[in-house]
Amino acid sequence: MKSKDKVNETYYTSIERQGYNRRDFLKFVAYIGAYMGVQSSAIGQITKALETTPRLPVIWEHFQECTCCSESFIRSDHPIVADIILDKISLDYTLTLMAASGHQAEAAKKATMDKYKGEYILCVEGSVPIGADGNYCCIGGRSAVDILKESAAGAKAIIAWGSCATTGCVQAAKPNPTGAVPINKIITDKPIINVPGCPPIGEVMAGIIVHVVAFGKLPELDSAGRPKAFYSKRVHDSCYRRPYFDAGLFAENFDDENAKKGYCLYKVGCKGPSTYNACGNMKWNGGVSYPIQSGHGCLGCSAKDFWDAGSFYSRDASVNAGSIEGNADTLGKIALGGVAAGIGTHAILSNISKRKELKNRITQATENEKHLDDL
Amino acid sequence: MPTKTNDYKRAYIWQLPIRIFHWVNAWAITGLVITGFIIGDPPGIISNKEASGQFWFGYIREIHFICAYLLIAVMLLRVYFAFKGNKYANWRVFFPFKKEGFKRMWHVIKYDIFLQNEETQGSPTGAVGHNSVAAASYLFMFLMALIMIATGFAMYAPNATWFLPKMFDWVVTLVGGDFNVRIIHHFVSWTFILFAIVHIYLVFFHDWLEGLGETSAMVSGYKFVRTERVKKEQEENKLSEIELTNQNSTQIKDIN
Hints:
The complex is a heterodimer of chains A (375) and B (256). Chain A has helices spanning 11-17, 22-36, 43-52, 68-74, 79-90, 102-115, 144-153, 162-167, 202-215, 228-231, 242-246, 257-260, 279-282, 328-353, 355-370; strands spanning 58-62, 93-94, 121-125, 128-129, 138-139, 142-143, 157-161, 180-181, 192-195, 319-321, 324-326.
């Protein structure tokens, strides 16, 4: 449990106390600044902010989720991210990592919420079920909806970690038995930063927290509420296989010659062209690799409703149109056949139905032709 | 003595900008559909050349984008002439959703599905410009084109270097993700294919039955109308001569 006397400690103080020297600290600042995409001139600003800003009280709620966001976060490749940012920022309440449990933990959360009303940051991992009065997800005998509403009421801002909290992810996929919804469907009166991904990249998560701490405001968000610094480019646009796409060189199977050559995975269902994330630049596990680099197409995990948006291994989604199911081309071809048959029938019937009209015209015109003098 | 036939006069129906719109639009759509299908499901090509020496898929996409801009350009031209053009090009033609319009639509449908034949040949009362059903279908296709432009630009926006495509990034949020944008784009493209086939067939059908130059009108601008209709109009014109002096509508030219 975090004791209250450490509350006014700055980030730098706690970093120092953990045994990191100033050089490590500055390296961390430069590193996270680069990930955040700020200019080098802003690194001084981040340094100063971390030196002077008191630790930000954070409550980290877990609802319907698999904890992959937390896992990704603690695996950020810089140790200070895990040691300092996570330990010092989120120690107030986070189910998975805090030492306290049971009533103690709930009491600690309550204490933070009361003491820092309107100041703390609420991080939410997981979607919230609203089916069956929210009883599908209960913590300490209270439903997730209840807990979320209570924690959100006094929050300064909310960070929605992962696809669960931003779009609902697999829990909200059809048929969505628990009625899972992302948090922006429940909380509408607070600023929300959406950080989609299943999970989001650890450095992205750290970068967003540092941004909030260093600049005292939310990062610039796009129309879907995602930080522009990390979600303004499609995976496709920063993909190292993009030249193969433009050259029209595609793998058609995962075991064909083209796949071995490392050609573009567009035809085996890569969702890079419709997915906004920083995987292509930042990669995963300390920049080691990312799905496309390991030979698998992007699943589009940070895209909205990616579980429902078609197969992971084809480009076309099937749509159920009445009794017929098929993708756009199948349904289009059926419609095309229908139209062709209709036109054929119509052409034949016209000759029968309009025969009088036609006969008149042909007779008249033939008659006229006979009376033409010229060649 | 030849059989008694009808007298026709030539009327200038489709002004040059309308014809330019029609043909640029037609070829742009053809290009868009062909390149669109290639982009949706490109052929797998085995090549020994380095990727750096090839760019064919990039060119296919470039053609798609050029055709898209052409389509938008002539669409703007058409909208301008919906206000500036003659009465057959006017925007009012495309909103036949009044009692009179529905009556005319029903007339066209009855004629086309063999419930009724014209009593005398040569369409003495039929529409000279767009018939009401055709006009309604063009309005529908105009809306479909707007959907294609919005979804197309929405997908294009992340790579765009100027403001126009970027104005459409709200579409992605509206329909819930880029993948849905892509599916909508793909589905709606089929309405253009189906429309084109029905459109071409019906043009041929009406030309074949009525013989009034339906097909060639989109090349020359002229259609043929029964002489008595023109006389009627000329009388009307006399009545409202002052209003029409500066109008470029209905320039009636004698065929003789």
